[in-house]
Amino acid sequence: xxxxxxxxxxxxxxxxxxxxxRLPKMMQRTRTPRVLDLPGGFAGLFxxxxxxxxxxxxxxxxxxxxxxxxxxxxxxAKKYDTIGIDLVxxxxxxxxxxxxxxxxxxxxxALGKDEPELIAELVSGVSDACVETGSALLxxxxxxxxxxxxxxxxxxxxxxxxxxxxxxxxxxxRIQPGDVILGLDSSGFHSNGYSLIRKVVFEGAxxxxxxTIPELGSTVAEVLLKPTRLYVSAIQAVLKQSLxxxxxxxxxxxxxxxxVARILPEGCRAEIDxxxxxxxxxxxxxxxxxxxxxxxMFRVFNMGIGYVVIAPPENVAVIQQALTGxxxxxxxxxxxxxxxxxxxxxx
Length: 347
Hints:
Number of domains: 2
Catalytic activity: 2-formamido-N(1)-(5-O-phospho-beta-D-ribosyl)acetamidine + ATP = 5-amino-1-(5-phospho-beta-D-ribosyl)imidazole + ADP + phosphate + H(+)
CATH class of the largest domain: Alpha Beta
Protein name: Phosphoribosylformylglycinamidine cyclo-ligase
GO molecular function, one term: ATP binding
Structural class: alpha+beta
Strand order of the largest sheet: 10-12-7-13-11-14
Number of helices: 11
Distance between the termini: 72 Å
CATH topology of the largest domain: Phosphoribosyl-aminoimidazole Synthetase, Chain A, domain 2
Order of helices and strands: HEEEHHEHEEEHEEHHEHEHHEHEE
Main location: cytoplasm
InterPro entries: PurM-like_C_dom, PurM-like_C_sf, PurM-like_N, PurM-like_N_sf, PurM_cligase
Strand content: 15-25%
CATH superfamily of the largest domain: PurM-like C-terminal domain
Helix content: 25-40%
CATH architecture of the largest domain: Alpha-Beta Complex
Largest sheet: 6 strands, mixed
Radius of gyration: 22 Å
């Protein structure tokens, strides 16, 4: 019997090294001044305080997430350079809700076999999103597990770390009756509800990934792989105005009812008018394609509102101006009233 090798077991260390050799350049382009040199280190180093502008009472903010079954769509389309944007967005947008400045990001990639090109494409999306959000891609892990993932399959997860001054933390506790609810436009489905999307599109309607959707003027792949919107620059533009913001919510799985309710303090209830904005056309297409109930659509998907800002009415005009200046469409979608924490739709 010949001597067993790691390659026989499905892990090619030479291919692995080829893949890893491509990553330092992608990490280097995300480098920020507070990243500390640690060649060959087992972890990453990041200096918390800003040179010349130290924090007074810094609080670290961290969030973790994955991309879900949107990954299956990327595999079907053989398009891997945007799914990393989704990964960063799902984590960074969550941390942003507390008013945090993104500091650094780490990713975890698991595959069934060594595929240097695939790994490079996946990490390129992560790198792109880190550059856009000012996050240093501080490190990560790539695991080859042939008995756990089939060839061609992969999964991604990651986490973001940010910082905010304790006295500027936005946790929703200042929300009060009379506050206005602003909805910020999403870019599409973002990264939620893809188990239902795939069931409707590929099983129910028997569409293929390259089919054109006439009413949308795009292919299935183009619509379903549109990356999750990154809200960092828009929200930073608002917060730099030193405006009072009482609460923020990233509208992901569970829709507005669940995500807005999470930040409401005692004595505050949200009223949201579903007729105050026009959902993106892809939502109408999917709803008709799958004969999905309207309430189910709003429970599963963002329906065109990817992020929510709750603020006093006197600040709304300036906040909207700052958001529009960052090319983020927005509209008043509701208000806060007295009542038990929760969300009511008025339309």
